[in-house]
């Protein structure tokens, strides 16, 4: 067990971004909106999201959001990179890590998270989401609308490139 924090020790939730998050929003505001969303969903499940610092400030070419729901987790539990598409006014979201602890699975947390992420991605001009799924997570991603990404080769046995078309 990862030892999620007790509900009484969560601390105050992150503030909602003060400006609307749209395709023209500044990269820092887009990152803030992701952190708010992750924190709000975590708080609803009885734990908070702990962002990891990024070495580079957010830019239109690269917005990074990394963190953990459990501050003591050995690996990051959420990782996302959003980047521009060359020659198009569009973005691609690369979901690098999404780990939902076994004790929190089958409680619709992942479904709610993906639904809210897709809604936010559509507002900021993300046209496609990509990821590499493990064999264990394949069914969950398929249930959220991801399909096999035939444009990329399998990286290793048991890892499956997937994509979700948003436009």
Structure report:
This protein has 167 residues and is of the alpha+beta class. The chain has one domain (21-165): Gcn5-related N-acetyltransferase (GNAT) (Aminopeptidase). Helices cover 23% and strands 25% of the residues. The chain contains three helices and seven strands, in the order αββββαβαββ. It has a seven-stranded mixed sheet. Helix 1 (27-44) runs antiparallel to helix 2. The longest helix has 18 residues, at 27-44. The chain is globular.
Quick summary of this structure?
With 167 residues, the protein is of the alpha+beta class.
Keywords:
single chain, 167 residues, alpha+beta, Aminopeptidase, seven-stranded mixed beta sheet, 3 helices, 7 strands, globular, disordered N terminus
- What's the CATH C level? Alpha Beta
CATH superfamily: Gcn5-related N-acetyltransferase (GNAT)
Cα-to-Cα separation, first versus last residue = 39 Å
SS element count, helices: 3
Strand order of the largest sheet: 1-2-3-4-5-7-6
Strand residue percentage: 25-35%
Q: Architecture in CATH?
A: 3-Layer(aba) Sandwich
Q: How many strands, what sense, and barrel or not for the largest sheet? A: 7 strands, mixed
The gross shape turns out to be: globular
Residue share in helix: 10-25%
Blueprint (SSEs and pairs):
Layout: H1 27-44, E1 50-52, E2 63-68, E3 78-84, E4 91-98, H2 109-123, E5 126-134, H3 138-143, E6 147-148, E7 159-165
Parallel strand pairs: 4-5
Antiparallel strand pairs: 1-2, 2-3, 3-4, 5-7, 6-7
């Amino acid at each position: 067990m990862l030892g999620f924090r007790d509900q009484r020790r969560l601390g105050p939730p992150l503030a909602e971004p003060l400006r609307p998050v749209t395709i023209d929003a500044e990269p820092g505001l887009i990152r803030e909106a992701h952190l708010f969303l992750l924190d709000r969903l975590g708080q609803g499940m009885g734990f908070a999201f702990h962002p990891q610092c990024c070495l580079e400030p957010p830019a239109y070419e690269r917005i990074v959001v990394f963190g953990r729901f459990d501050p003591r987790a050995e690996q990051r539990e959420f990782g996302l990179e959003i980047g521009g598409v060359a020659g198009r006014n569009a973005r691609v979201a690369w979901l690098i890590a999404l780990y939902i602890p076994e004790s929190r699975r089958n409680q619709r947390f992942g479904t709610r998270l993906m639904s809210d992420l897709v809604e936010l991605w559509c507002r900021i001009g993300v046209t496609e989401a990509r990821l590499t799924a493990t064999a264990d997570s394949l069914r969950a991603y398929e249930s959220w609308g991801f399909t096999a990404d035939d444009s990329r080769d399998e990286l290793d046995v048991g890892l499956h490139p997937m994509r979700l078309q948003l436009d």
